[in-house]
């Protein structure tokens, strides 16, 4: 996979530009030169599939992203109506974005400056998959909401974080599109591509007019976590700056909002599941906003027995994975104690994350030994409470799969013997089988 460092054109990015250009129109915003000084395209020239090979075979004098203009691109004026539509669709998002607001969030987004290179990059991302722009706008809304509470009196940094929310996933344009399909079973090589998308976006945005360092660094860090179990760099503690945390928790919140098939959930309860991943200041603010949201969104009127039964099955699956971990924990600790430093650090991080998930699960009152009747008592016949249990189980199942996936990805840098040990441990605990969506989302990485 090529990177943008040396101005080599990434074929996946170019493919998205050509596809978007075919629908919207694409031109060179300035003369495009090869690194050796040959003019490849003149300013204003249409960019189409016939020029693909010419652009791919040369290193360019300037990054292609800086020389592309997509016509009919996403503009700031379009962001406000999109934000309003998102809030109409998701009452939880409306409540969260109204917390502590002095200016309506749609006005904030409409006021963003989006120079042509940023507009074109955002537009290519928006057209790459269905609902991408709606997701980006939602994350930008939540990022801006958190930023104005955590960074009062710093409007420029607030704007930078809102922009980072819009472009947080543009790195996906540079990886094999097949890796992003739900039906794709991810091998280690495919997961490495996905795990590098924040780094690729950082390199692109750092040099892109209208983005810059703070935007680029927030995007680079939005999958990092305070406990060091994030990616792509695995930074921890003070090494993880606040902007990356703000963007990371905003994306997590948007995932909660997008679970539109569940009733209103109590954000304060769900934040217990991510203890240790974000700072207290960030999570306290989320809990305050969540307190306003509790009970404001009508619950689903779906108390059917089949739904209750499905939740019960998912709880059993989740608890079985946790029990396998408990049975293997002593052996994993012993393996870590006598391993080389790199493997020991990886196993220790995995154990710490698993222990926090165990504590979070215990705090919810969910018990894998509950019968269907006991689950009905726990939820007290309330669709909203059942929905909260659904979200908790789904989130924890996803986090167990994420531990397995991240551990396998990091193991790729270890010796063959250490990789064998990691695979043996993960086969034993089978965390991937805890997921709610196992049938549609592959949980295990195939060998590289």
Written description of the protein model:
By secondary structure, the chain is mainly alpha-helical. The chain folds into three domains: 4-70, no CATH class; 76-293, Hypothetical protein af1432 (Orthogonal Bundle), CATH 1.10.3210.10; 306-434, no CATH class. Helices cover 57% and strands 2% of the residues. The chain has helices at 11-24, 52-56, 76-89, 91-98, 105-110, 116-126, 132-150, 155-166, 188-195, 197-206, 213-220, 242-257, 267-270, 280-293, 305-337, 341-364, 372-379, 383-411, 416-429; strands at residues 26-28, 32-33, 39-41, 68-70. The strands form two sheets. A two-stranded antiparallel ribbon has the order 1-4. A two-stranded antiparallel sheet has the order 2-3. Helix 11 crosses helix 12. It is globular and about 65 Å long. The model is unreliable at 297-303 and 438-448 (pLDDT under 50).
For this entry, give a set of tags.
448 residues; Hypothetical protein af1432; 3 domains; two-stranded antiparallel sheet; two-stranded antiparallel ribbon; 4 strands; disordered C terminus
Summarize the structure.
The chain is mainly α. The chain has helices spanning 11-24, 52-56, 76-89, 91-98, 105-110, 116-126, 132-150, 155-166, 188-195, 197-206, 213-220, 242-257, 267-270, 280-293, 305-337, 341-364, 372-379, 383-411, 416-429, and strands spanning 26-28, 32-33, 39-41, 68-70. The protein has a two-stranded antiparallel sheet. A two-stranded antiparallel ribbon has the order 2-3.
């Amino acid at each position: 996979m090529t990177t943008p460092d040396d101005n080599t054109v990434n074929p996946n990015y170019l493919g998205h530009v050509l596809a978007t250009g075919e629908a919207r129109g694409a031109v060179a915003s300035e003369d495009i030169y090869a690194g050796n000084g040959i003019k490849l395209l003149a300013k204003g020239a249409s960019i189409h599939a016939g020029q693909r090979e010419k652009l791919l075979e040369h290193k360019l004098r300037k990054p292609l992203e800086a020389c592309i203009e997509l016509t009919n691109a996403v503009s700031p004026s379009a962001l406000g109506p999109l934000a309003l539509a998102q809030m109409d669709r998701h009452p939880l998002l409306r409540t969260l974005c109204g917390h502590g607001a002095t200016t309506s969030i749609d006005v904030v987004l409409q006021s963003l400056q989006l120079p042509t290179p940023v507009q074109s990059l955002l537009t290519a991302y928006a057209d790459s998959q269905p609902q991408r722009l709606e997701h980006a706008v939602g994350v930008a809304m939540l990022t801006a909401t958190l930023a104005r509470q955590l960074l009062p009196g710093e409007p420029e940094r607030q704007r930078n974080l809102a922009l980072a929310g819009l472009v947080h996933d543009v790195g996906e344009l540079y990886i094999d599109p097949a890796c992003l399909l739900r039906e794709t079973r991810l091998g280690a090589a495919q997961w490495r591509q996905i795990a590098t998308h924040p780094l690729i976006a950082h390199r692109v945005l750092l040099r892109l007019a209208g983005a810059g360092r703070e935007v680029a660094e927030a995007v680079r860090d939005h999958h990092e976590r305070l406990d060091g179990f994030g990616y792509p760099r695995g930074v921890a503690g003070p090494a993880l700056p606040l902007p990356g945390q703000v963007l990371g928790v905003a994306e997590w919140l948007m995932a909660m909002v997008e679970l539109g098939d569940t009733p209103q959930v109590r954000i304060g309860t769900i934040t217990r599941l991510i203890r240790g991943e974000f700072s207290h200041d960030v999570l306290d603010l989320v809990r305050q906003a969540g307190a306003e949201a509790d009970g404001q969104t009508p619950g689903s009127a779906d108390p059917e027995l089949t739904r209750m039964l499905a939740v019960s099955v998912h709880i059993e699956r989740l608890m079985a994975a946790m029990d396998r971990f408990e049975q293997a924990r002593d052996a994993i600790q012993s393996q870590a104690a006598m391993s080389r430093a790199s493997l020991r650090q990886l196993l220790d991080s995995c154990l710490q994350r698993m222990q926090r998930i165990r504590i979070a699960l215990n705090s919810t009152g969910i018990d894998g030994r509950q019968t269907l009747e006991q689950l009905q008592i726990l939820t007290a016949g309330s669709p909203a409470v059942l929905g909260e249990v659904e979200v908790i189980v789904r989130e924890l199942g996803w986090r167990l799969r994420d531990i397995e996936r991240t551990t396998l990805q990091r193991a790729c840098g270890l010796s063959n013997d250490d990789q064998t040990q990691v695979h043996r441990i993960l086969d034993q605990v089978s965390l991937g089988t805890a997921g709610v969506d196992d049938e549609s989302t592959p949980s295990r990485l195939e060998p590289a």
